[in-house]
Amino acid sequence: xxxxxxxxxxxxxxxxxxxxxxxxxxxxxxxxxxxxxxxxxxxxxxxxxxxxxxxxxxxxxxxxxxxxxxx
Length: 71
Fold this sequence. Notes:
Radius of gyration: 12 Å
Oligomer: single chain
Helix content: 25-40%
Strand content: 15-25%
Number of strands: 3
Distance between the termini: 10 Å
Mean pLDDT: 92
């Protein structure tokens, strides 16, 4: 069972925060920089900023750069 979650098109972080609150390490990916800033603020408000990281960028490009075949 994986302890890591990729939240594609993460928006302002709702699902990422829920996964983090459930104990997962989360990587949120969102193209809109304003939404990424809001997601980081929301993670701090819900005290999960140590379990979630947000990246501003294109989801398809970000996923292509990851080596997910062995996971």
